[in-house]
Amino acid sequence: MTDIRADFTQAGPADAEFGDYVALLKPRVMTLVVFTALSGLLVAPGGLHPVEGLAAIIFIALGGGASGALNMWWDADIDAVMKRTAKRPIPAGKVTQGEALAIGVTLSAISVIMLWLATNALAGALLAFTIFFYVVIYSMWLKRATPQNIVIGGAAGAFPPMIGWAAVTGSISIEACLMFLLVFMWTPPHFWALALFMKSDYHEAKVPMLTVTHGRRATRTHILLYTIALLPVALATGLTSIGGPVYMAAALWFSLGFLHGAWAIWRRDEVQAEADSYATEKRVFRFSLSYLFVLFGALIAEAALRNLPAYADFAARFNLMEMF
């Protein structure tokens, strides 16, 4: 594949609008980053002053946006080839690569320094590492080097709830690690379900997605295995201080629903999938989009309900760590 980075760097923006610069920050991805970070912040013991909490979320969001801009700067060549990304600001000629790089670097520095000042050094360091991991480890290295790119690269998207927790507590706990694992284990089946019906995009861009290197049959098996592994992580989260009956009910119901969808994907062959235009794969992908929002929303609900003494006593029975 021809590297077209130089072409984008030479090109000037054509009537760039404010929305084009916002698009550089990947606002849809940022929504999940902000929500999971907010969840980590709200369920952490102690809490922050509302102004500090708002500042923390803003700077975490800026860090996520910085990662998106730097990813688009680096991946402009393959974005131009893939139908799903061809209309992004750089391949569309709205924003130059130089502008994207400058925006990404500037926002990275601002977000890390300001989160450090607004909360603590650990939160700032975790945000800095997250940006580095997404841009350098995932985008520059793993994405084009291994079919396990989504697995390892998924760690970047899993850090926000841990950052939110650290912003409040200045530490990392088993609860923060389980929230990290919840996102980490969810990422591969979520993106591989997408890859099943977007295979031509990755093939044309020469990105070694699992569907390209190992085929769709192997991808279906991987989706099932990772979804099975996700179930105990989701339930284990409910057995800590941030869990409770509301979360456990949501985690069990939606994890079983996700597993049912993964099983349906695994049972299908390509003849069946092509016959209905990958309807099952698309349905499971859409379901996976709601999965994290429901589970992290349930964690927020648990934190709110603990203000009721009777509920707090009842929910404490789910805390496995306090039983020993």
Automatic annotation (TrEMBL):
Source species, domain of life: Bacteria
Keyword Transmembrane helix: yes
Any single Gene Ontology cellular-component annotation: plasma membrane
EC number(s) per entry: 2.5.1.141
Enzyme class: transferase
Keyword Cell membrane: yes
Topological category with respect to the lipid bilayer: Multi-pass membrane protein
Pathway(s) of this molecule: Porphyrin-containing compound metabolism; heme O biosynthesis; heme O from protoheme: step 1/1
Keywords: Cell membrane, Heme biosynthesis, Membrane, Transferase, Transmembrane, Transmembrane helix
One protein family per Pfam: UbiA
Transmembrane segments: 29-48, 54-74, 95-116, 122-142, 149-172, 178-197, 223-240, 246-266, 287-305
Family matches, as InterPro entries: Protohaem_IX_farnesylTrfase (IPR006369), UbiA_prenyltransferase (IPR000537), UbiA_prenylTrfase_CS (IPR030470), UbiA_sf (IPR044878)
A GO biological process held by the record: heme O biosynthetic process
Function: Converts heme B (protoheme IX) to heme O by substitution of the vinyl group on carbon 2 of heme B porphyrin ring with a hydroxyethyl farnesyl side group.
Assembly and binders: Interacts with CtaA.
Protein family per UniProt: Belongs to the UbiA prenyltransferase family. Protoheme IX farnesyltransferase subfamily.
Protein name: Protoheme IX farnesyltransferase
Gene from which the chain derives: ctaB
